[in-house]
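Case study: Ubiquitin-associated domain-containing protein 1.
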Amino acid sequence: RLHVCTMEGAEWLEEVPEDTTVEKLKERCLKHCVPGSLEDPKTVTHHKLIHATSEKVLTDTKTVLEENIQDRDVLLLIKKRAPPPLPKMADVSAEEKRKQEQKAPDKDAILKATANLPSRNVDRTVAHHNMRDFQTELRKILVSLIEVAQKLLALNPDAVELFKKANAMLDEDEEDRVDEIALRQLTEMGFPESRAVKALRLNHMSVTQAMEWLIEHADDPTVDAPLPGQTPAEATAEAGASSAEATAGPSSEEGGEEAKDELTEIFKKIRRKREFRPDPRAVIALMEMGFDEKEVVDALRVNNNQQNAACEWLLGDRKPSPEDLDKGIDTNSPLFQAILENPVVQLGLTNPKTLLAFEDMLENPLNSTQWMNDPETGPVMLQISRIFQTLNRT
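Here is what the predicted structure looks like once written out:
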């Protein structure tokens, strides 16, 4: 069931099977809102359907399923703009003449005009470093905001219960974080489901890369071995044990101390679950160049799992260092103060889900997109980004 809108304000629901092509869907929409429009075959080609959330123009030849359109998605039907008329030859000549008159000076002309100016040494490396500072500063901001959020949430009398639920949600999230469509595509090719799940997790849900991995490791005796790390069942059992201890504790000052200690332990468990996961392919590729595994993991962590950037870091001055990533921003800086004074950020810091998002983005920047699109955490991240960009320009 799709919600279709037009630029004129018309709205209605269309029910279509998943194998319906975008072109057929467009015909149905035009038939609904512009009676008699299909008499002209060009009408269909002169309109386009846009997915409202992703702002993507849908391809006529693809099906609803191939375009990953979900139930209750909103589509916008609009008329394509007519291409501008081709300029006349006289206009072209006049435009070329104007461009020649406004042509920028060449290198020789610039050197001649600036020959008498005093020379200055411009540190290009500093300018380049300032452009790269966004990710570094964002990490520092997240580190400091995590500390603030933990303090705020610890004051909540229901904090322990909230984070037990968050811990359980995290277990489910780790267990179920698999793209169902991608998994179905691989299982339909004949790959076992458990093996396909492992391949998708190792390859960031890319069907193509997962398929290559499955073919490459088909005869590998360890292909069905589980991924390293704590299992969700173990984590849930630990959380349940902590829950039982907290319930049995007294509701006095001593009980408050126990609750505080338990909250600290839950924070540690959440942090352990969100530990940085290096891209396995990048690790292998960089180790084959002769680098030590620990160096490679550090390089990928500093450079957000980007293999080329990690290679440059390993070959360069290795700045920032992995230790720098754990340092927060100056809490007295105008930037941090502006972030804390923002009402949206203040409200978000009282939500346990925001803390989980910060922890996740800190160790796994590739997951930033899902938190930016989340209705609870997205507005907070948007405000932080806007404040950073505004102060960075002043």
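For the exam, be able to explain this: The chain has a mean pLDDT of 76.
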